[in-house]
Amino acid sequence: MEDLADVIQEFLRKGGKYLIVLDDVWSVETWEIIKNAFPENNKCNRVLVMTRDSGVAIYCNSIPHYLKFLIAEESWTLLEKKFFHNDKCPITLKLPGESIAKKCSGLPIAIALIAGALRKEKTTRHWERVNQTVAFPSGFQIPSWKLIRLWIAEGFIQYKRGSSLECKAEDNLNDLVNRNLLMVTTRTSDGKIKTCRVHDILHEFCRQEAMKE
Length: 213
Fold this sequence. Notes:
By secondary structure, the chain is mainly alpha-helical. 52% of the residues lie in helices and 10% in strands. The strands form 2 sheets. Strands 3-5-4 form a 3-stranded antiparallel beta sheet. It has a two-stranded parallel sheet with strand order 1-2. Helix 4 packs parallel to helix 6. It is found in: Membrane. Belongs to the disease resistance NB-LRR family. Its main location: membrane.
């Protein structure tokens, strides 16, 4: 980490003005490590730190800028745009769509995640796999082998001629990653998913839905 910070610092020092955007900074400790990479060269540089932790925001800047939450109407408009693009939502889906948007608590990132998660797949089996993922605690790094074995044991993976259950489950795992339902945290030396986790906002959404079952 220190070597990387030195490389970044040297690169920025040789350049002109810079604007650095840091998204999803979770802790003061993380900021303390990262900020050492940014040289002070009196060129009016800027570092924009985005975080959901107000303590981190205040630590970085005593007068942080707080983004306002979307109201219900704005949340639905954003979800509709993310989901249907330039098309209008069918009348039969408007009420459940507005309900989903409301559950996002006015957070644009939550709305974007849910829209991406729901856009391509509307089957019960797909949501069962998602709900099964919520069996792990929020933020927990899930070993892919454990998740795959759990899916197979629960009967969520259907046998397909010419492909083993493990291969089919691995395809499903990659599909969830591609749809931003899961985030890869580590990979094996050959590029396969070793561990993954569910985004906190999506985890909470799925947990609440699972409790209704």
